[in-house]
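Homework help board

Subject: predicted structure for assignment chain

Our instructor gave us this sequence and asked us to write out the predicted structure in token form, then describe one feature. I got the tokens but I'm not sure how to describe them. Can anyone check?
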Amino acid sequence: MKSHHIRGTTPNIIAAARQLRLHLTPAEKLLWEALRKRQINGLKFRCQHPVESFTVDFYCPQHRLVIEVDGGVHDQQVEYDTARTESLNLLGYQVIRFSNREVISNLSQVLHQIAAAIES
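My token output:
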């Protein structure tokens, strides 16, 4: 597969993103099935996408929207996640976060919030 250079990334970040795509969590798989193939407002989403020095869970390039799905490990890294969100915001990205539990138990509400973020 030909590698495309994504501004601000390194080959290691791109390789890590590819590996993450192969090992999605159950919540990420569920959300990806709902986002892929332009199912929300005809918009393209990318899964485990490199953005600068980060790999984000989902990304809509047309609206510079980043969607993160947080599991239990994120309870121990709140400061890191906050700093990461702030860094992405400074780069011009809008970041919204959902817990695994939210995605699994109320996918329709999650999709509604994503659509609302796109429309705002």
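Reply (TA_rk): Your tokens look well-formed. For the description, you could write something like this. The first strand starts at residue 46 and ends at 51. That's the kind of observation they're looking for.
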